[in-house]
Amino acid sequence: MANQSSAPKGAATGEAAVDEKILREMYRNVYATRQFELTCVTLYRQGLIRGYFHPYLGEEAIAAGACAAIGRDDYIVSTHRGHGHCISKGADLKLMMAEIVGRATGYCKGRGGSMHISSKLDNNLGANGIVGAGIPIATGAGLGIRVKGSRQVVIAFFSDGASNNGVFAESINLASVFQLPVIYMLENNHYAVSTPVECSAGDCNLANRGPAYGVPGVCIDGNDAEEVYLTTKQAVERARRGEGPTLIEAKTYRHGGHHVNDPGLYMDQEALASWKARDPVNLLRAKINDVSVKQIEAKVDAEVAEAVEFAKNSPEPSVEEFLASIADD
Amino acid sequence: MANQSSAPKGAATGEAAVDEKILREMYRNVYATRQFELTCVTLYRQGLIRGYFHPYLGEEAIAAGACAAIGRDDYIVSTHRGHGHCISKGADLKLMMAEIVGRATGYCKGRGGSMHISSKLDNNLGANGIVGAGIPIATGAGLGIRVKGSRQVVIAFFSDGASNNGVFAESINLASVFQLPVIYMLENNHYAVSTPVECSAGDCNLANRGPAYGVPGVCIDGNDAEEVYLTTKQAVERARRGEGPTLIEAKTYRHGGHHVNDPGLYMDQEALASWKARDPVNLLRAKINDVSVKQIEAKVDAEVAEAVEFAKNSPEPSVEEFLASIADD
Amino acid sequence: MAELKYREALNRALFEEMRRDPLVFVMGEGIAERGGSYKVTEGLLKEFGPNRVIDTPIAEASFTGAGVGAALIGTRPVVEILFVDFTTLILDQIINQAAKYEFMSGGQGKVPMVLRTQGGAGNGLAGQHSQSLEALFYHIPGLKVVMPSTPYDALGLLKAAIRDDHPVIFIEHKLLYMTKGEVPAEEYVVSLGQADIKKPGEDVTVITYSYMTLKCLEAAHALEKEGIRAEVVDLRTLSPLDKKTLLESVSKTGRAVIVHEACKRGGVGADIAAMLMEEAYDELDGPVLRICGKNTTIPYNLELEKACVPSVAEIIAGVRTVL
Amino acid sequence: MAELKYREALNRALFEEMRRDPLVFVMGEGIAERGGSYKVTEGLLKEFGPNRVIDTPIAEASFTGAGVGAALIGTRPVVEILFVDFTTLILDQIINQAAKYEFMSGGQGKVPMVLRTQGGAGNGLAGQHSQSLEALFYHIPGLKVVMPSTPYDALGLLKAAIRDDHPVIFIEHKLLYMTKGEVPAEEYVVSLGQADIKKPGEDVTVITYSYMTLKCLEAAHALEKEGIRAEVVDLRTLSPLDKKTLLESVSKTGRAVIVHEACKRGGVGADIAAMLMEEAYDELDGPVLRICGKNTTIPYNLELEKACVPSVAEIIAGVRTVL
Ligand SMILES: Cc1ncc(C[n+]2csc(CCOP(=O)(O)OP(=O)(O)O)c2C)c(N)n1
Ligand SMILES: Cc1ncc(C[n+]2csc(CCOP(=O)(O)OP(=O)(O)O)c2C)c(N)n1
Ligand SMILES: [Mg+2]
Ligand SMILES: [Mg+2]
């Protein structure tokens, strides 16, 4: 049996067209993510960003589409490739950039950096340096929602590599047994670092892992923000009705290496080209009128520039204060 | 969707009848396991066995059927409920009983006890006190076989509870990706301690978890040693051909509580009665001529009695020697 | 004052805290219907229902991670892991998530979670059900570690742990569940981070915790008859460590013995000994002695098992050597 | 003698051992085609093929468990975990399986497995990619723990670890991979369990391991200029601990300082300090000093990160205080 990635068949096909307002909101987010990431690449090259930085380039439509389907009060859990989730959930680009540059004014006071960025105000429970570790955390947020008796939902973002870790199977089973309001958003970008999904998954059509645990699994085009939005919306409604979790496999492709220093030469160049031809930013831009696009882009460009200035002008955290804060440990 | 356990549909139906010799071998093992376990219960009540003892009563056909399908050179990995596996793989009842009673002559010199029994000579890699932990170990034995280039296979025994642990999903996926010669024998006895499988698995037809990882999953009647044997045989042949792992869900039912001190009052009494009516020892006995049955039973009875004598007359391990052996740690 | 068993005291703490705060909930294997392997959660399901008393599949890593997630959104999970031995399955969620979240988020989020578990040797349960692994948690910044020895402490400390805004590893001992002790009828809390002098004395400080406290007291009472007055300090909370009480006691007695069941090599006793040497060298009349578990996997055979863990006789003999 | 980088030395060790013994194989994430994140496994795939150089999915618990299983049937796996921080995911397989199997089986089976991993702070990788977790392994009976500081030691110790019949936790340091050192052209092995005096001295014993060895040497050389002759003992193997070398050195110098990057609380240094006090109290002229990592999660910001780990200046200052 050849283990081949099949074309997504979206559950959302034939759905009602998406509201213009939502399209604009999503475009703001895909475009902002794109610009933010490109800027981070530059800052990284300049030595302003350290550690690991995993760009979300090429995958922007997933975060944007998914987050458009939930409210600010709903939760998300992000990954090491988490800037797109953070932006689409509503984060302040200034505080994000300050964090990623390691400044005292950042979301995490410069203690977290790119791999640990979170924004509590937006109910973004944060990125994670441990692949897969966010999945049970999201599941637990779902459980907490049940305990609190609220109507919130949670989206757990993670990628193909993480879906091979035991916590994924355990968590989706937990959510199934407890009928938790969690949407498992599997960003299948076809790689875990250099390992192609065909070499890491016994069946690389990862949506199939849902039904094995009694959870509907649907495979969609992750480069189409509209499709992501509509599918997520259905899953969210299902979750709010108390009918439990959904697994959404959103197929997509990284636009480059695993992290900023990885040229990604091992990637399938043909596949990469064909995915790039279906760039999520372009796809969505084509659905919006030019005036809106220009307005949005201008606004975002200014925001990103402002974020860079803010980060650069922000103070480094004080070593003395830091040492004092841990003194009694 | 109601999460209900469906009736097994064995892959082996319509297969050629099983050789009489195999039937006798299997009967020896189901009967020996039954008598061994009943004897252990008695010894436990007498205070000769300590710690945890999880009887394999009611599940004897699975170990006997599966082990009949492999050779002595092939490996098995067992569980906390492991006496049946050990016996069916060919262990010496004397050394087993001595171990379970904690004597110096036991397989593990009295250091392991029931929960850690292993017999290297039979390529039984051992029981395990950590639910699920044997599954990756079995998978690794499969990997080692590939490294060595031998034609051996491995059977991993585990139960429904273990299949909810992440190591199961990880392992079956690994075996699928690497096409390892491992048979995953899921003894679905419907309970993990007091938790019914319907409450612990999002889809309690656990064989469905195979295909999600590209592994054939087949559900069979675990009380029918013949069916277990035939299904395992097919899986073993497949594995030896290099075609990779198989997941076999063998449905069965514990004949009592989780461990010797658990009356199991929470069990579904109706289901228990109907499973007991299909007692694996009786089912198999009915397929063998009376003379053979009597011969086998007499031999086993003597062996079990001898094992008890051997254990009782064996020395306790020496505390001094033990302390000396760990002195440089 | 009523006499309660250790497990009853823990049970009462859970009842009281779940009544006090609807955001407190418990989760673990077989804890609801069955009331837990050691009956600590008995009766909770009936009063609080299945939304707050949750039986889980055997998926320790994930339900512990779920505890972290639930804590992050403001509920207060009490997660039970049946044996401390099985915490080896959840250390990513404890070490990399629970312990670090508040720090790494710059204080945006907190993880008010209690991890209840149980350890120690003593029933012939062999290598994977008899360990004392507190040192693994003690080494990790961001975790509190609590190991009560009496029903009184168990009740008061569990309540404090549940109210604490940080992850607390709460380790019970399998041989303590059936022990009895006086517990006041009225509500009380025992603050985390405070050692308790279980028996005052002038000649030597015996520092211990959990089940070994009982053995040390037995040893101390025996020594008393010979005129040796040992002060038995029960740490109760290992982290944060109550250095003040330890240093005060040691500066009074000038001699210290540390007793724990965990393996000696790399055990918590090493850290306490090193700390005392660093901070009270001049107060001490000699080296700090450690009486600890042997550096071995615990064997199944009962006599061998017994040989692995400090006995009252060993403690008595040890104390004598430092005088 | 040739000069090799630490990572090249490790790579040579793997080549030599895999050539010597066809049962040795390596497994981990991105180690085959990509040659590993730190290039330690580069070239192996080409020579030994995909059966012996195995890329795994991100399923650490299971591929480590698979290592245990493979070891049990007589092959000799070298399992790579990218960061020691991720070993929190595999501790059941290490602590409850690999470490205990030989004991619990009464010696029927052995686990000749090497777990290679990498730790330490230094590149702004933040809390989950910067830890020093050797204390977790050091505490567990049945495990050997090796932490080489030089290319020479790395090569010889990795070979010894692969030949050892017991599970060995082999922890590299991310800041060492690019460091260089002399390595003989001919084959050699460095036995496990032997510390190495990296610089002899008479006045004070500085006990350390891994990357901190370099800092201690730097400090010792600076102190030498002031006439303070520090002996720098590189443990190389933490478990089994080379007590003999330590006790000899301490009885010569009468003073000891322990330096490691891991958090002080419950770190390996505590055990060594406690052991020295117990076994060389009369040899010592004062308390053993520990200079260790701060008890904190490592922050992302580079300046904060730096403040968490002992610096050369701190070591120099510390050594002065014990004289
Ligand atoms: C548990 C764990 N194992 C390994 C790593 C190292 N690592 C970081 S990202 C990554 C690949 C993750 O792949 P995937 O889940 O597909 O996410 P993607 O990078 O594609 O977004 C790996 C192996 C890690 N951080 N955590
Ligand atoms: C990791 C782990 N979690 C929990 C336990 C406690 N425990 C022992 S047996 C058992 C139930 C196992 O259920 P299952 O896998 O179905 O095996 P069965 O007892 O039915 O054979 C549990 C929860 C354990 N030993 N290991
Ligand atoms: Mg991916
Ligand atoms: Mg079961």
List keywords for this structure.
heterotetramer, A: 329 residues, alpha/beta, Rossmann fold, two-stranded antiparallel ribbon, 12 helices, 7 strands, 9% strand, globular, C: 323 residues, 2 domains, five-stranded mixed sheet, 14 strands, 37% helix, binds thiamine diphosphate, binds magnesium ion
Please, could you describe this protein's structure?
- The complex is a heterotetramer, with two copies of chain A (329 residues) and two copies of chain C (323 residues).
- Residues 11-15 of chain A have low confidence and may be disordered.
- Chain A has 329 residues and is an alpha/beta fold.
- In chain A, the strands form two sheets. A five-stranded parallel beta sheet of chain A has the order 1-2-3-7-6, sandwiched between helices. In chain A, strands 4-5 form a two-stranded antiparallel ribbon.
- In chain A, helix 5 (134-148) runs parallel beside helix 6.
- Helices cover 43% and strands 9% of the residues of chain A.
- In chain A, a hairpin with a 2-residue loop joins strand 4 and strand 5.
- Chain A has one domain: Rossmann fold, CATH 3.40.50.
- With 323 residues, chain C is α/β, with parallel strands linked by helices.
- Chain C folds into two domains: 2-183, Rossmann fold, CATH 3.40.50; 196-322, 3-Layer(aba) Sandwich (Rossmann fold), CATH 3.40.50.
- In chain C, 37% of the residues lie in helices and 20% in strands.
- Chain C is built from eleven helices and 14 strands.
- The relative contact order of chain C is 0.12.
- The model of chain C has no long low-confidence stretch (mean pLDDT 97).
- Classes of the chains: A alpha/beta (329), C alpha/beta (323).
- At the A-D interface, helix 12 of A face helix 3 and helix 11 of D.
- One thiamine diphosphate (TPP) sits between chains B (54, 79-81, 129-132, 159-162, 189, 191-193, 258) and C (29, 58, 60, 82, 86, 89).
- One magnesium ion (MG) binds next to strand 4 of chain B.
